[in-house]
Write a structure and sequence with these properties.
31 helices, Tex N-terminal region-like, 748 residues, Nucleotidyltransferase, domain 5, alpha/beta, 5-stranded mixed beta sheet, Arc Repressor Mutant, subunit A, 5-stranded mixed beta barrel, 11% strand
């Protein structure tokens, strides 16, 4: 069994045999989507989240083990390793414990204590620590040398040695860490003469909150103000409590001259060494915790966005709206290929008739089946123009966040080298309607606009989590092998950028794939890569009907046996629920394939290649087009565009998203909007407040609904901050403060 299996199993409450199976599969080169989908029998049905947790824990344990080995080696090379010290290292369970044990042996810059020891003052420090009733001045005078001018200097050196001993005492550090965890507060104050510049951090000019209660968005807001040079911050418990804790361990005698010296050394140890060290440690830990929560919010929003409902393969007329510069128009075929591009001016009276004629002509010429209109500047007005043409075609407003980033990217230049950014942006809008996932994978997730403080968090960890999210979504949906771009293919289990490019080149050479086994002819795509990717790649109308399903090629013979036992061919078995109900699972269980996999196969055969995403529904905003049209008390439809811990942002079609504070989402008490809402949910909202000057709108969902009879009454809310949809700078405290922090939505 893997050396980490039991420890991980205990922490995650998963059987060690399951953890061991996952770790062994990782060692063989298996990916998380593959393990979750095709190795359920080995893992006992663990899902992607659990498998990801096992991978994360294994990584952390590996780092811990490597650090422990380094510390043991370093101490041993110094000739200072003892049985007691080795025992302490062996029982340490956290990196903090390891570092505390290692601290006295850690190479460091020359300290005051080291100077004092070099000046021969260590015996005096030992004498002082005994805390006996002695003539301390007389004893200290015995240590006067060329480098120690008088008795006071000798006592100062002794205190420096004691202070360092206190700071490096692993027991003291452990207790001090617990005191910080339980009672420390994060405090911030505005720097002198910075009040005007730092006005956006007004909530933190004189701020204090216990670190065990402070939410992640407030931590990140204070840290940003601190790093930008506007705020002074500290993390500390009450000093008297900290010093009393140390004195309980070190003061052994009644009050005398030696005890006074030890007390002075303790205070110095805390102020100069312990408190700054632990403050730095806790600032890092709080930042890491806040990062993780913000990243989790981002990842969940990204997942919901990537799994947005697709319109599917339709011929699209896509429009990137504009006033002065006109509306950029493109016509796309069912595969998303650009057929035509043009420019119309729908917002200039003298050009409106020509624009109407041109749109009707394009609809007829390219057999257009739907309109995709970017929801940015002039989006609603352009939508209104198209609907007034009465063409009897569905019209969709498409979120265009990040489209400009894509249109200027290397990916877009590679796809459309002969077209400018305006055409590329319009194509992206049209393709997003057809398949949001396939198009959004081409854009850096940070540019999509569903994050919270994404520029403040650990960028390496953010990229790692967002990449994991994209991989999960792509493999959950599956990919059409004959139409997928290399960018989409690169996220398929076992492929990556190089193989994706090779697949596309091979596809161009052979025309199209007709069989999954043809993948083995792709340069550098060997057996292991084929095993990992084959089940997630779909071939429509291929030679083998199973290639269009999520059934893995390794199970094809099993399906053929099932069909043969029912006296039908495989094609007749697929989609035939009555026949599939007759399949006896136990009959097909073997050493290689268990009941979980067989049940998955039967489920897939009932609805082969089923897209897990819901069908796209048309949505109509109210007849309001700007914030000036909005009135308090109105009830209007809206679309959820972003979810944060403090509330939901809702697009009501007036260019500025409104904010539904968490207290206005549900009649039931909730602490996280995700408990009641998902991205792209269609909701009814009531207008609570409109600030025309600041372009801010407060909304309520619960006030459009009747309270459940006998239901749980809403509890009082704790204060909430308000990071903005697009990387908001501030945190507010309540509904009004959250609203006051709301900025105009970028790109709208």
């Amino acid at each position: 069994m893997n050396e980490f299996a039991q420890a991980i199993a205990g922490k995650l409450n998963i059987k060690s045999v399951q953890v061991d199976a996952v770790l062994n599969l990782f060692a063989e080169g298996a990916t998380i989507p593959f393990i979750a989908r095709y190795r359920k029998d080995k893992t006992g049905g663990l899902d992607e989240v659990q498998i990801q947790q096992i991978q994360d824990e294994a990584k952390a344990l590996k780092e811990f083990t490597e650090r422990k080995a380094f510390i043991e080696k370093t101490i041993s090379e110094q000739g200072k390793m003892t049985e007691a010290l080795q025992s302490k290292l062996n029982t340490a369970t956290t990196l903090a414990e390891l570092e505390d044990i290692y601290l006295p042996y850690k190479p460091k810059r020359k300290t005051k204590a080291q100077n004092a020891k070099e000046n021969g003052l260590e015996p005096l420090a030992v004498l002082v620590l005994e805390q006996k009733e002695i003539d301390l001045q007389l004893e200290a005078a015995k240590f006067i040398t060329e480098n120690v001018k008088d008795a006071d200097a000798a006592l100062q050196g002794a205190r420096d040695i004691i202070a360092e001993q206190v700071n490096e005492d692993a027991n003291i550090r452990a207790k001090m860490r617990k005191l910080f965890e339980d009672t420390a507060t994060l405090q911030s104050k505005v720097l002198a003469d910075k009040e005007t510049e730092a006005i956006k951090y007004k909530d933190y000019f004189d701020f204090s909150e216990p670190i065990h209660k402070i939410p992640s968005h407030r931590i990140l807001a204070v840290l940003r103000g601190f790093l930008e040079g506007f705020l002074r911050m500290s993390i500390t418990p009450l000093e008297e409590d900290a010093i009393a804790l140390i004195e309980d361990q070190y003061i052994t005698g009644s009050l005398n001259a030696s005890v006074e010296q030890v007390k002075k050394a303790i205070k110095d140890a805390y102020r100069r060494l312990l408190q700054p060290s632990l403050e730095s440690e806790f600032r890092t830990a709080l930042k890491a915790k806040a990062d993780e929560e913000a990243i989790n919010v981002f990842a969940e929003n990204l997942k919901q966005l990537l799994l947005s409902s697709p319109l599917g393969s339709k011929r699209i007329l896509a429009i990137d709206p504009g006033y002065r510069t006109g509306c950029k128009v493109v016509c796309l075929d069912e595969k998303g290929e650009l057929q035509h591009n043009d420019l119309i001016y729908v917002h200039e009276a003298n050009k409106k008739y020509d624009s109407e004629y041109k749109i009707k002509e394009l609809v007829t010429k390219y057999n257009i089946e739907a309109f995709a209109i970017g929801d940015g500047t002039a989006g609603r007005e352009t939508e209104q123009f198209i609907k007034q043409l009465n063409l009897q075609l569905p019209v969709f407003l498409v979120n265009e966040d990040g489209a400009s980033v894509y249109s200027a990217s290397e990916t877009a230049r590679e796809e459309f080298p002969d077209y400018d950014v305006t055409v590329r942006g319009s194509v992206s809008i049209g393709r997003r309607l057809m398949d949001p996932l396939a198009e959004l994978v081409k854009i850096d997730p940070k540019s999509i606009g569903v994050g919270q403080y994404q520029h403040d968090v650990n960028q390496t960890r953010l990229k790692e989590r967002l990449d994991q999210t994209v991989v999960s979504c792509v493999n959950t949906v599956g990919v059409n092998l004959n139409t997928a771009s290399k960018h989409l293919l690169s996220y398929v289990s076992g492929i990556g950028a190089t193989l994706a490019e090779n697949i596309v080149k091979h596809r161009n050479e052979i025309g199209r794939f007709t069989d999954r086994n043809q993948l083995l002819k792709v340069p550098r795509l060997g057996g292991k890569a084929f095993e990992q990717c084959a089940g997630f790649l779909r071939i429509k109308n291929g030679t083998n009907p199973l290639d269009e399903s999520a059934v893995h090629p390794e199970a094809y013979q099993l399906v053929e046996r099932m069909a043969g036992d029912l006296n039908v061919d495989v094609k007749s078995l697929i989609g035939n629920e009555e026949l599939l109900k007759k399949v006896e699972v136990k009959k097909y269980v073997s050493e290689d394939i268990g009941a979980l996999t067989i049940n998955d196969i039967i489920k897939e055969l009932k609805k082969p290649g089923l897209d897990p995403r819901s069908e796209l529904e048309q949505f109509e905003f109210a007849s309001i087009y700007s914030i000036e049209d909005v009135r308090v008390g109105m009830v209007v439809p809206g679309v959820v565009t972003n979810l944060t811990r403090f509330g939901a942002f809702v697009d009501i079609g007036v260019k500025q998203d409104g904010l539904v504070h968490v207290s206005e989402i549900s009649h039931q008490y909730i602490t996280d909007p995700n408990e009641a809402l998902k991205l792209n949910d269609k909701v009814q909202v009531k207008i609570l407040e409109v600030d025309l000057v600041r372009k801010r709108i407060a909304l309520s969902i619960k006030q459009t609904q009747e309270a459940p009879q006998g239901g749980q009454r809403s509890k009082p809310r704790s204060n909430h901050s308000s990071p903005q949809k697009k990387d908001q700078d501030l945190s507010g405290m309540n509904m009004n403060d959250a609203l006051s922090a709301l900025k105009k939505k970028f790109g709208k």
